[in-house]
Amino acid sequence: LPIVIGPAHADSACRRELARLGAVMYKSIHSPQNQVFLALLRDYRRLRRLRQADVGDRLGKDQGMVSKVESGERRLDVIELRAWLYAIDVDFVAFMKELDARLSRL
Question: Of 19, 3, 22, 2, nearest to 11 (Cα)?
Fold first, then answer.
């Protein structure tokens, strides 16, 4: 089996390249990558002309939870993200491609 070396074991040049690609996992909810993600969520909601309350209704949640997600106060796991995107009629794969394109411009 090949040995996989993660960012903690990588040399500084490798860590810089991983950071440039957005591949380093940041703990901060205020990372540039997370801000791009949150902006994309908001952009798609607004494009669909949905209020936060509308998204909450579709998810069986309240508007406050939607606000917390969009502000970065609460994170979504991948399963929640899939449900969120379904609720706003956005294809998961298309969303990820757009997210990747925006992150690559950082």
Answer: 19
